[in-house]
Design brief:
This protein is α/β, with parallel strands linked by helices. The strands form 2 sheets. A 6-stranded parallel beta sheet has the order 2-1-3-4-5-8, with helices on both faces. A two-stranded antiparallel ribbon has the order 6-7. Strand 6 and strand 7 form a beta hairpin. Helix 3 packs across helix 4 and helix 4 packs across helix 9.
Length: 270
């Protein structure tokens, strides 16, 4: 509950610059979620900024969120694209957990977007490697050191979780078989990388929210593009060789890092 309250505070401040223009807010849910989990958040934004159009996209809810991420990107892109066309002054995009990776895929592949503020709430932007409750529920017979046997296969890549499972001890297998995160992060070369990067950096403001009390994203620094090296030592974002994030750092000063246990950092969201 404390984490959600802090999320609401951060979002309230982050959206202050939209108070005059009332840009529409689009929410993309995460794994095993749907619109009903974001009713309070949508209501809070509407009450804080009366007149704001808030939409939680009703696609790939609950168990359907396990569908391959590229499939989800296709569906969300069609829905979000229509909303963008109707918003002449742009939109704010709020993406929760796995939804952050869906948002990245949408922005990478949509021909043109008008996202003003892109807000990632506890999203595994650099991947996931940890035995959290979600993974124990879905993979009861596996532990984190063994999941790659499933995820790094053609069948495994048909499961959303496997699309961002990043085993630091199986780097070669990850780069060879992962067909989503490795492409988005530019860890594997492909002909669309330059165009994807260009579309991503055209956002006006990037807000990354996460923290050590997350309890799901592992390592929690993945919410800031940090991740484990082969010794399971976290390498922070600026040192991490992630093409899209470093490119954005070079081209924009509108990046905000907000740690859940340090609410005073919210002042940087103005």
């Amino acid at each position: 509950m404390t984490e959600m309250i802090l999320h609401l505070v951060f979002l309230s401040i982050a959206l202050l610059d939209a108070a005059v223009g009332y840009r529409p807010v689009i929410i993309i849910h995460g794994l095993f979620d749907g619109p009903k989990q974001f009713t309070n958040l949508a209501s809070f934004i509407s009450q804080t900024h009366p007149g704001t159009n808030v939409t939680t996209v009703d696609l790939y809810d609950d168990m359907a969120s396990l569908k391959p991420l590229w499939d989800q990107v296709k569906g969300f892109k069609a829905a979000v694209g229509q909303m963008m066309e109707n918003a002449t002054d742009g939109v704010h995009l709020i993406c929760f957990s796995q939804g952050g990776l869906v948002c990245r895929g949408v922005l990478a592949t949509i021909p043109k977007h008008n996202v003003h503020s892109l807000i990632f709430l506890s999203s595994p932007l650099a991947g996931q490697y940890g035995d959290t409750s979600y993974f124990k529920y879905f993979f009861p017979k596996y532990i984190k050191t063994k999941i790659y046997h499933l995820c790094y296969t053609l069948f495994g890549q048909k499961i959303s979780i496997c699309n961002f499972w990043n085993d630091p001890h199986q780097r070669e297998r990850y780069l060879k078989t992962n067909n989503y995160l490795a492409l988005l992060n530019g860890e594997r070369e492909h002909p669309n990388l330059t165009q994807w990067r260009k579309r991503f950096v055209s956002i006006k403001k990037l807000v990354l929210i996460g923290g050590p009390d997350d309890g799901v994203i592992t390592p929690w620094q993945s919410s800031f593009y940090g991740f484990y090296d082969s010794n399971e030592t976290v390498v922070e974002m600026k040192a991490e060789d992630v093409s899209l994030s470093t490119n954005l750092l070079e081209h924009s000063n509108q990046i905000v890092l907000s740690y859940e246990h340090k609410p005073d950092l919210a002042v940087y969201l103005y």
